[in-house]
Amino acid sequence: KDRTVFYSKEIRRLLQEKNAVLLAHYYQEDVIQDVADFVGDSLELARKAAQTQADIIVFAGVYFMAETAKILNPNKRVLLPDLAAGCSLADGCLPEDFKAFKARYPNHKVVTYINTSAEIKALSDYVCTSSNAERVIRSIPEDQPIIFAPDKNLGAYLNQVTGRDMVLWDGSCIVHEAFSLEKLIDLVAKNPEAKIVAHPESEAAVLQIANFIGSTSQMRHYIKTSPSKTFIVATEAGILHQLNQEVEGKQLIPAPARENNSCACSECAFMKLNTLEKVYLCLRDETPEVQVEATLAEQAIQPIAFMLQNT
Ligand code: 13P
Ligand code: SF4
User: Fold this and answer.
1) ipTM for the predicted complex
2) What CATH number should be reported for the domain holding residue 222?
3) CA 26 to CA 175: how far, in whole Å?
4) Does any domain span residue 129?
5) Phi, then psi, of 210 in degrees rounded to 5
6) Taking the mean position of all CA atoms in its chain, how far away is CA 282?
7) Ligand 2 binding pocket, CB closer than 6 Å
8) Structure pTM?
9) What pLDDT digit, counting tens, does each position of 18-53 carry?
């Protein structure tokens, strides 16, 4: 407890002293969310990173998020508390494999989820996040064939809602594919009034029984504004921290994960590599820093900038 107070105070002091900003994703641990300047979903964080006047961005999230912030801010320092904070989607889509995949579909436009490396973004026509993916797909003429990568669950969901037949890369999120449908059905039987709220990275069977599907911030908005009192929340458990404080009188039940999952609820082990201590140390020592080679950054910024301007 004392260490938490110490780190939090020091982080706030150093942020001011260094004209730095601390951006945190909703999947970060509670104490990091509490000390951050801004907490958001992938799209909101990319927007904040694009707009900030700070000299240093401390990104409490995973590598591809900090890398996107660096691409948008080549002249600022972007720090990531733990450089090993990866993502199963980004790490499962390697440039050489993706180039070969793309070559099989020469007439297709490439839409990629923001959960990719700079190299994959540089090979993309469009970039999207879970909150604007449907809008991005609908903005592309219907007769234009599309490759969607790397999340096959989000891709299948988008195919279903838009009626398209996009070719999907075979990737998935280890957190959102870990929900147990059987346990979820049991939970619904015990809480028949509960609304199921799911992130579109979840598997089709979970999405099929969901009452609402949306990005982290869209799920938060639904839960806050819905007249229902009980919600089963199928996404990373970190989203419950602020929500529980904001929706007094409502019950939020984390969707259960399969037996072999490391946590009874669903936590992203990559996101949780960042700790309050690591946030403090990286801000104090201004390392580890994320770097993106200039030519690569110039190519990767095109679809990111287009997304930020048009959605
Ligand atoms: P959003 O923040 O867009 O909801 O994405 C969730 C996610 O898995 C981030 O890695
Ligand atoms: Fe990647 Fe899934 Fe973790 Fe998000 S929750 S960072 S998509 S592994």
Assistant:
1) 0.97
2) 3.40.50.10800
3) 14
4) yes
5) -75, 145
6) 22
7) 27, 62, 87-89, 115, 173-175, 236, 268, 270-271
8) 0.96
9) 999 999 999 999 999 999 999 999 999 999 999 999
